[in-house]
Amino acid sequence: MIKNYMEEAVDRVYEYMRPNLKGVCTCEQCVNDMKALALNNLKPKYVVTHQGEVYSKVGQLHIQSETDIIKEITSASEVVRKKPRHSPEFFEGQA
Ligand SMILES: [Zn+2]
After folding, report:
1. Full residue range of the structural domain in which residue 80 is found
2. Which residues surround ligand 1, an ion (CB under 5 A)?
3. CB crowding 32-70: b at 16 or more within 10 Å, else e
């Protein structure tokens, strides 16, 4: 099975950043938007996984990647904070 490890890393980093992301909506739509925005700006990191192997790869993620993930989630959270997609204003703005 091929997996983009970056998705898992973004999930993990988002979870610990979450309490500090003030004023950012945490509904499913907004959280997914935020993660997608961040992932689009991060280089995918594909790994081949076998049962139970995924977590051994976690530690291999370079510290620089974590800094990048924090940076991307921070800017993605700004986008979502200003224009949450659950809001009707977003759709008016896009029209
Ligand atoms: Zn929301």
Report:
1. 2-94
2. 25, 27, 30, 84, 86
3. ebbbebbbeebeebebeeeeeeeeebeeebeeebeebbe
